[in-house]
Automatic annotation (TrEMBL):
Pathway recorded for this protein: Amino-acid biosynthesis; L-histidine biosynthesis; L-histidine from 5-phospho-alpha-D-ribose 1-diphosphate: step 7/9
E.C. number: 2.6.1.9
Protein name, UniProt field: Histidinol-phosphate aminotransferase
NCBIfam families the UniProt entry points to: hisC (TIGR01141)
Recorded family membership: Belongs to the class-II pyridoxal-phosphate-dependent aminotransferase family. Histidinol-phosphate aminotransferase subfamily.
């Protein structure tokens, strides 16, 4: 096949590297699947909530029909929860879909997109396929430098991504910082505030981003049910924005982008406060377990507001890959972040207490 097939900007895309599946690691390293601990993709260690499972069982008989293209019931639940009209809501096949829909709805070939160094890989992926220009703003202490991001905005900038908390670094911007930033951003730039880890924030850090949506007509708030709600495999996320933006996103999305099972499960999970609280409690305890261990091992880590921690496992640029391999051999899957430009670091998702302990023991051995 010709090397020149497809646009140059598509050939330039570095494919997304996901956490290794358990079955693959079992095959590659000759391990028993049941013994493998996966702390690689920021999934909920409790799996999916039972409430969602029951809702899916009830929904299964309708799978011969197309899903509700407008997600009426789910939007009604979200509308009430976030106190916005239903026509301010866009559903996505995961929030990844939301990011891509926003890119297609607001950016044309050659226009510019702004995001931070060390921010979520999908911002590059979602916009590179459009032939957009990328303005990657150097990070500050592994997080977003909002002043520099504001300064990077030009006349042809159309979209700007903020991850709060950020993945893979776990850094957090306060409500005051974000609001001061939103006041500075010109109206021709749509800001996507990606809050995939919002549910893990402590009460002190929580803020009302949906109130900003009422105030700022160029703001899109993106959320997912993949992380705290435990529905990563179903692919369901949503965005909240004023109708002008929502209407454009609705034109771009696939008509049946969110399947029936995902809609039914999301309705149940959104109402499952007990599951969410249990997950947040486990996460806080696991964070302490990790950071105490990292301190004891003399390892630097970035203080995290998500359900994962970025930890530095060596000073040379092979360190991440080397320690990752040593962990895989012991049946522990974590996330190397060399593709993010962080080859000395690993990102570890917070698991159940026992899984965290297995990881810590394996890490201690890997470093010895
Ligand atoms: C995990 C993640 C998402 C999206 O996950 P989906 O499963 O597509 O909803 C979005 N943004 C960030 C920063 C993430 O870490």
């Amino acid at each position: 096949m010709s090397k020149n097939i497809g646009p140059e900007y598509v050939r330039a895309i570095a494919p997304y590297q996901s956490g290794k599946p358990i079955a693959e690691v079992a095959r590659e390293f000759g391990l028993d699947e049941a013994s493998i601990v996966k702390l690689a993709s920021n999934e909920n260690p409790y799996g999916m909530p039972d409430s969602a499972k029951q809702a899916m069982i009830a929904a299964i008989d309708d799978l011969g029909r197309y899903p509700d293209a407008n997600g009426f019931e789910l939007k009604a639940v979200l509308s009430q929860r976030y106190d916005v009209p239903a026509d301010w809501i866009t559903l996505g096949n995961g929030s990844n879909d939301i990011l891509e829909i926003a890119a297609h709805a607001f950016v044309q070939h050659g226009q510019a997109v702004v995001y931070s160094q060390y921010s979520f890989a999908v911002y590059a992926l979602a916009t590179q396929g459009l032939g957009a220009r990328h303005l990657v703003v150097p990070a500050q202490a592994y997080g977003h430098d909002l002043d520099a991001m504001a300064a990077a905005i030009g006349d042809d900038t159309r979209l700007l991504f903020i991850a709060n908390p950020n993945n893979p670094t776990g850094t957090f911007l306060s409500a005051a910082q974000i609001e001061a930033f939103l006041q500075k951003v010109p109206q021709h730039v749509v800001v996507v505030l990606d809050e995939a880890y919002n549910e893990f924030l402590s009460a002190d850090d929580q803020y009302e981003s949906t109130a900003w949506v009422r105030q700022y007509p160029n703001l899109v708030v993106s959320r997912t049910l993949s992380k705290a709600y435990g529905l990563a495999g179903l692919r369901i996320g949503f965005a909240i924005a004023q109708p002008v933006l929502t209407d454009l996103m609705n034109r771009i999305r696939q008509p049946f982008n969110v399947n029936s099972m995902a809609q039914a499960a999301a309705i149940a999970a959104l109402d499952d406060k007990a599951f969410l609280e249990k997950s947040a409690r486990n996460n806080a305890a696991g964070y302490q377990q990790f950071t105490e261990a990292f301190t004891a091992l003399g390892l630097e880590y970035v203080p995290s507001h998500g359900n994962f921690v970025l930890v530095k496992v060596g000073d040379d640029d092979e360190a991440g890959a080397r320690v990752n391999l040593a962990l895989l051999k012991q049946g522990v899957i974590v996330r190397p972040v060399g593709s993010y430009g962080l080859p000395q670091w690993l990102r570890i998702s917070i698991g159940l207490q026992q899984e965290n302990a297995i990881f810590i023991a394996a890490l201690t051995k890997a470093l010895a």
